[in-house]
């Protein structure tokens, strides 16, 4: 709550912006609850498949490890919608707090808990993407263990960060109106004509800085730094992949060992050179990928013995071309794109309000002017984020062009 300079609390007049805010919140909450419910049910009932790449095994079946992130993010969105958003709608409509002192503390605690949980889960997704880029191994059963540990820490950290709200927020009753309001201890001290207002303002500023930093700015910096590392790694891999491709071409066409690797005998070599070269060309790719030490091809004119069949692995700084292929597939997967969209949307919708809120530490008049002219609507973008999230990570089904089976892309 904005700390006012007034020495008494009065029942404020309803602003036109608050009527708009009520309408927007009701619409956003109604739509978001439907979307999140559908996506949560869909995710929980998604197909169980055999163990494969990017999958883990909880119990006797496998489930996409990214679905664990989606379920937890969906739960945090439900908390924002059902606790923070609905509570704010009632508060804006009644203009008075009717749920007592304990209700005030609990509402602020759970609202903060939902914000912290949402931000922390976004951090966990970011760290998982970072690990995916820097790891030389595909996701496995160990990914599920890592994801569960990270998410457990997210919820625990959110709980402890929200505890101060139980001590800072309380209800006060103005006189002679008897109007009850849920405010912070700093507003109460100022409203009670505290003689040490400067110290109260400093304490309020410290609280706001700590709250905003842990709820948004620290997660924001972690996300930016992580994606800076991801972009750097991707650029580095692009250069390495290009060099590895050039090295492979030189190995295929310029390496003398490739021309001396084939010894063949034939009774009609003169008449069968074209056929022989064609056979070697057709089998060259499988020849290099064969794990055997030698093999024998049969042509019309005789036999061709291929020695040293174990191809030299094209390695550039310890990375094979097959690894580049798997790495690119993993980055190009729907999981990776969905994660990036979720993170980008979180930043875009949470940043405006937090930027405006941060101005109070530098220009109190500007902050007050913005908040009295619709600035609170920027805070409602957090609720919009909970509406957009299920659209970003909802599972989509498509028909497989090869076997006409229904499959899930998650």
From TrEMBL:
Domain (G-protein coupled receptors family 1 profile): residue spans on this chain: 35-393
Topology term for the membrane: Multi-pass membrane protein
Record key words, sorted: Cell membrane, G-protein coupled receptor, Membrane, Receptor, Transducer, Transmembrane, Transmembrane helix
Keyword Membrane among record annotations: yes
Regions that span the bilayer: 20-44, 65-86, 106-127, 147-169, 216-239, 335-356, 376-394
GO cellular component: plasma membrane
GO molecular function: G protein-coupled peptide receptor activity
Family matches, as InterPro entries: GPCR_Rhodpsn, GPCR_Rhodpsn_7TM
Protein name from the UniProt record: G-protein coupled receptors family 1 profile domain-containing protein
Natural source organism: Caenorhabditis angaria
Taxonomic placement: Eukaryota, Metazoa, Ecdysozoa, Nematoda, Chromadorea
């Amino acid at each position: 709550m904005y700390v006012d300079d007034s020495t008494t609390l009065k029942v404020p007049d309803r602003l036109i912006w608050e009527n708009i805010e009520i309408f927007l919140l009701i619409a956003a909450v109604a739509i978001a609850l439907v979307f999140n419910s559908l996506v949560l049910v869909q995710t929980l009932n998604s197909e169980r498949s055999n163990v494969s790449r990017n999958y883990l095994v909880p119990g006797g079946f496998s489930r996409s490890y990214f679905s664990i992130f989606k379920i937890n993010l969906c739960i945090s969105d439900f908390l924002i919608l059902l606790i923070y958003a609905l509570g704010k709608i009632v508060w804006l409509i009644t203009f008075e707090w009717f749920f007592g002192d304990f209700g005030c503390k609990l509402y602020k605690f759970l609202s903060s808990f939902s914000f912290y949980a949402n931000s922390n889960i976004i951090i966990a997704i970011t760290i998982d993407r970072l690990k995916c880029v820097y790891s030389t191994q595909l996701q496995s059963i160990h990914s599920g263990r890592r994801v569960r540990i990270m998410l457990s820490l997210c919820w625990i950290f959110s709980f402890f960060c929200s505890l101060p709200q139980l001590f800072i927020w309380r209800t006060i009753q103005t006189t002679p109106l008897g109007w009850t309001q849920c405010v912070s201890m700093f507003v109460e001290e100022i409203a009670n004509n505290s003689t040490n207002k400067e110290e109260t303002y400093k304490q309020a500023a410290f609280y706001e800085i700590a709250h905003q930093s842990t709820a948004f700015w620290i997660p924001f910096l972690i996300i930016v730094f992580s994606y800076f590392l991801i972009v750097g790694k991707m650029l580095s891999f692009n250069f390495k992949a290009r060099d590895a491709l050039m090295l492979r071409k030189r190995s295929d066409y310029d390496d003398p060992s490739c021309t001396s690797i084939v010894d063949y005998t034939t009774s009609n070599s003169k008449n069968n050179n074209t056929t022989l070269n064609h056979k070697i060309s057709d089998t060259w790719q499988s020849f290099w990928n064969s794990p055997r030490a030698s093999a024998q091809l049969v042509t019309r004119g005789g036999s061709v013995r291929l020695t040293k069949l174990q191809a030299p692995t094209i390695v550039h700084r310890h990375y094979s071309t097959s690894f580049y292929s798997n790495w690119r597939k993993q980055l190009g997967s729907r999981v990776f794109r969905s994660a990036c969209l979720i993170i980008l949307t979180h930043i875009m919708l949470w940043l405006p309000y937090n930027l405006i809120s941060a101005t109070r530490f530098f220009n109190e008049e500007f902050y007050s002017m913005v908040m009295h002219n619709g600035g609170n609507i920027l805070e409602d973008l957090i609720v919009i984020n909970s509406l957009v999230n299920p659209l970003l990570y909802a599972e989509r089904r498509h028909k497989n062009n090869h076997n006409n089976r229904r499959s899930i892309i998650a």
